[in-house]
Amino acid sequence: MRRVLILGGTGEGRLLAELLSGDPGLEVTSSLAGRVTEPRPAAGRSRIGGFGGAAGLAGWLRRERTDAVVDATHPFAAAITRNAVAATAAAGIPLLVLRRPGWAAGPGDRWLWADSLAGAAALLPALGRRVFLTTGRGDLAAFAALEGIFFLIRSVDPPGPPLPACHRLLLARGPFTPDAECALLHEHRIDLLVTKDSGGTATSAKLTAAREAGLPVLVVRRPPPPAGVPLVADPAAAAAWLRRLP
Ligand code: NAP
């Protein structure tokens, strides 16, 4: 019996737990940070809350006699990924990063790229006045000082301060449809969409809607995956990697 920890908080993490459930050779625990008030449940065992840094995670892995870790966290969750690299090295067990591919612009898209949230905030005033801001509630501080710009802010749970002075809050969780996203852009007379390059289909309808409306999109580039760690793009490949472990 192998013990596996999935660092989750993504659809891919949940799908991997589901793919592995019922495998008699694996005992799987999914871990969530506890950021959203009603997390979607994962198959198998689960735990919620931080570990207390890389050292805390390494201690947890040893105590639970964990054999392997899959980092299936969001592409922008850089701190837990760094901790996973350090903790698995300290515990002497293998780590796999499961990261969905980023989005790619197609014909008709008007995308501009920023290297960071601060970079996006610096570019923003030259690009729009009525902005659909979909970076998530943890990433709004970078935009808080921007004045004279209306922000439609969408997040799963209510964000805390600081927020831009002129904003309207929309609490919603994907998946979203292109038609509903088009209606939203129209209703709020949006002239710029700001997003992180999260990838995946759950929140990509806004990109289709922006293309159809001819709107520019400011895309924040993702942090690079950790060097020297095996990387797969989908849950099936992660399940195959786990089943191949010696
Ligand atoms: P982060 O900045 O990389 O992590 C901050 C701290 O949160 C970590 O040091 C760790 O605390 C704890 N943590 C993060 N993921 C955890 C997990 N799966 N299990 C247990 N503890 C975890 O992460 P974040 O960007 O705040 O994201 C938090 C969670 O939300 C992640 O699990 C991610 O998959 C999910 N999520 C993030 C985004 C995003 O845009 N960043 C979007 C959708 C979902 P300790 O140091 O105490 O262990």
Produce a short descriptive summary:
By secondary structure, this protein is of the alpha/beta class. It has helices at 11-20, 53-63, 78-91, 117-123, 178-187, 205-213, 235-244; strands spanning 2-7, 26-32, 45-48, 68-71, 95-98, 110-114, 130-133, 150-155, 167-171, 192-196, 216-220, 231-232.
Please tell me about this protein's structure.
- This protein is an alpha/beta fold and 246 residues long.
- The chain has two domains: 121 residues, Rossmann fold (3-Layer(aba) Sandwich); 111 residues, Rossmann fold (3-Layer(aba) Sandwich).
- Helix content is 29%, strand content 23%.
- Strand 1, helix 1 and strand 2 form a beta-alpha-beta unit.
- The two termini are 12 Å apart.
- Bound molecules: NADP nicotinamide-adenine-dinucleotide phosphate (NAP).
- NADP nicotinamide-adenine-dinucleotide phosphate (NAP) binds next to strand 2, helix 2 and helix 3.
Largest sheet: 6 strands, parallel
- Give the helix proportion (percent range): 25-40%
What shape does the CA trace take? Answer: elongated
Instruction: Please tally the β strands and state the result.
Output: 12
Unreliable spans are none
Give me the number of helical elements: 7
What do the pLDDT scores average to?
Answer: 97
Label the CATH architecture of the largest domain: 3-Layer(aba) Sandwich
Radius of gyration: 19 Å
Structural domains: how many:
2
Q: Which molecules are bound in this entry?
A: NADP nicotinamide-adenine-dinucleotide phosphate
- Class of the largest domain, according to the CATH hierarchy? Alpha Beta
